[in-house]
Amino acid sequence: MHQMTLAEIARGLADKKFSSEELTKVLLARITQLDPQLNSFISLTEELALEQAKAADARRASGERGALLGAPIAHKDLFCTQGIRTSCGSKMLDNFKAPYDATVVAKLAAAGAVTLGKTNMDEFAMGSANESSWYGAVKNPWNLEHVPGGSSGGSAAAVAARLLPAATATDTGGSIRQPAAFTNLTGLKPTYGRVSRWGMIAYASSLDQGGPLARTAEDCAILLQGMAGFDQNDSTSIDEPVPDYSASLNTSMQGLRIGVPKEYFSVGLDPRIAELIQNSIKELQKLGAVIKEISLPNMQHAIPAYYVIAPAEASSNLSRFDGVRFGHRCENPENLIDLYKRSRGEGFGPEVQRRIMVGAYALSAGYYDAYYLKAQKIRRLVKNDFMAAFNEVDIILGPTTPNPAWKLGAKNSDPVAAYLEDVYTITANLAGLPGLSMPAGFVDGLPVGVQLLAPYFQEGRLLNVAHQYQLNTDWHTRTPTGF
Ligand code: GLN
Question: pTM score, two decimals?
Answer without folding.
Answer: 0.98
